[in-house]
Write a structure and sequence with these properties.
Elements lengths: L11 E6 L8 E7 L1 H12 L8 H7 L13 H20 L15 H4 L2
Antiparallel strand pairs: 1-2
Length: 114
């Protein structure tokens, strides 16, 4: 008799870091399965905000570790960084948190043609 299991899809995670003065954020961690879970756990432990976007993670998984994100992703990552700054400001002032940006289609048609 075949046993039916509830297998959840393999989770992926990518961590970005941006330092002032650098031209673009870098991919500092990425992985699937247990590694992805560890990336998320470490982010949670350190109070790092997490944004879920399968489409964006898929694109970022193609970037080598310690490499800057490609220019085609600058716009969407800039929107995410702006969202994070708004979250920090809202937390300090007691205002409601802003909604996350829509990253379901991280590349515009113009970006895709580059």
């Amino acid at each position: 008799m075949a046993e039916s299991r509830n297998l959840r899809p393999l989770q992926s995670a990518v961590a970005l870091a941006y330092r002032s003065g650098e031209p673009a954020p870098k991919v500092v961690a990425k992985g699937r399965g247990l590694v992805a879970e560890q990336i998320i756990a470490v982010a949670n432990e350190h109070g790092v905000h997490i944004h879920e976007s399968k489409e964006l993670v898929s694109l970022l998984m193609d970037v080598d570790l310690d490499r800057q994100i490609p220019p085609v992703l600058y716009r969407i990552i800039a929107e995410l960084l702006a969202w994070l700054y708004h979250i920090e400001a809202a937390q300090k002032s007691g205002m409601p948190l802003p909604p996350p940006p829509d990253t379901s289609s991280p590349l515009t048609e113009e970006d895709q043609n580059r």
